[in-house]
């Protein structure tokens, strides 16, 4: 006679977890890196843990259309959607880089339901920079 194999259940103590454990985030930081070729948007909480991110390339733009303001606006909308669903309604914005998508990204954030607490430009500026090349002799 064959032995009965006990059935192992994936449930622990009869409890089924229906929803993923999501954190309610009320205040966060939106990092915008606007380079000359692409715009990358990262949404974090106050401690710096990434909630969501998006770029113009991940939004479906290719080639020279990645650096357009419309691509930056679309990337911001994609990144913010997840944060708003988790309860974010206040944010600080840190903008870095010289790209075309800077103003369009900020405009898209203002049109969303997020209230802006702080807007700061953190573009790195050299305070003397690298040593220039030696003078050319002909």
UniProtKB/TrEMBL annotation:
Q: Does the keyword RNA-binding apply?
A: yes
Q: Which UniProt keywords apply?
A: Plastid, Ribonucleoprotein, Ribosomal protein, RNA-binding, rRNA-binding
One Pfam short name: Ribosomal_S11
What GO cellular component is one of the record's annotations? ribonucleoprotein complex
Q: Which SUPFAM superfamilies match?
A: Translational machinery components
What would you give as a GO molecular function for this chain, any one?
Answer: rRNA binding
Query: GO:BP terms for this protein?
Result: translation
InterPro entries for the chain = Ribosomal_uS11, Ribosomal_uS11_bac-type, Ribosomal_uS11_sf
Family membership, please give it.
Belongs to the universal ribosomal protein uS11 family.
Supply the name of the protein.
Small ribosomal subunit protein uS11c
Organism listed in the record = Cuscuta erosa
